[in-house]
Specification:
Shape: globular
Helix content: 25-40%
Number of strands: 8
Strand content: 5-15%
Number of helices: 8
Largest sheet: 6 strands, mixed
Distance between the termini: 34 Å
Radius of gyration: 16 Å
Order of helices and strands: HEEHHEEEHHEHEEHH
Length: 215
């Protein structure tokens, strides 16, 4: 596990206490799993990225355990396989933070930095964490495309940009213009549930990356 972040100046403090429900969950997991990360999960990837991928929040046995976004559970296998196919991944992803992989041209963040109960952050938690999404995204000098994995990430990004949700509704494959000639592209989240139920297929996910590469 590592607290290294390519955007360390913009990260939530590891002892962040803004959201009581999330703090309590972290505290309880530290008792039962003292060797887990159990803290806000920093961004991972290239500070010169043109593509930013924004997920929902750390998974209990994924990033909350390992300290690296989309690492340690099934969703990471899908995401990193796709990143590899499209040339963003350097090294061999083995689904643990010691595998030494790096990203080139892409960076991964979450809309909510801490594990929420049942993977469902509430409105105040999403709002509290938005500054830790806005600051890093606005500091990426080469950013052209933001890929939102799921509606919660999409909604937080739209609110972050002071845009109207009614005019920018979430839909898989939809593209929404952002300031500075950037674009937001939506995708269903690459969770195990969505992949198993075929709500999202590998082909659908790859098509979103193909669309991103056109900007």
């Amino acid at each position: 596990m590592s607290d290294h972040s390519p955007l360390s100046f913009a990260e939530a403090p590891l002892g962040c206490r803004q959201c009581p429900r999330l703090v309590e969950l972290r505290r309880s997991l530290k008792k039962s799993h003292p060797n887990w990360w159990n803290a806000p999960v920093p961004a991972f990837g290239d500070p010169d990225a043109w593509l930013a991928i924004v997920g929902l929040a750390p998974g209990k046995e994924g990033a909350n355990r390992t300290g690296r976004p989309f690492t340690g559970d099934a969703s990471g296998q899908t995401l990193f396989a796709t990143l590899s196919k499209f040339g963003f991944l350097k090294g061999e992803f083995q689904n643990h933070p010691g595998d030494g992989v790096t990203l080139e041209g892409a960076i991964i963040l979450n809309a909510v930095k801490c594990l929420p109960p049942e993977n469902k952050p509430n409105g105040s938690e999403i709002t509290n964490c938005r500054k830790y999404l806005k600051k890093p995204l606005h500091s990426l000098p080469n950013l052209r495309v933001v890929l939102a994995l799921g509606k919660i990430a999409h909604d937080s990004l739209i609110r972050m940009e002071d845009l109207r949700l009614a005019d920018n509704q979430f839909a898989h494959g939809a593209a929404h213009p952002l300031s500075g000639d950037r674009v937001l592209i939506d995708s269903y989240h690459c969770s195990r549930y969505n992949m198993n139920t075929k709500r999202l297929t590998v082909e659908m996910f790859e098509e979103v990356f193909r669309a991103a590469s056109k900007y």
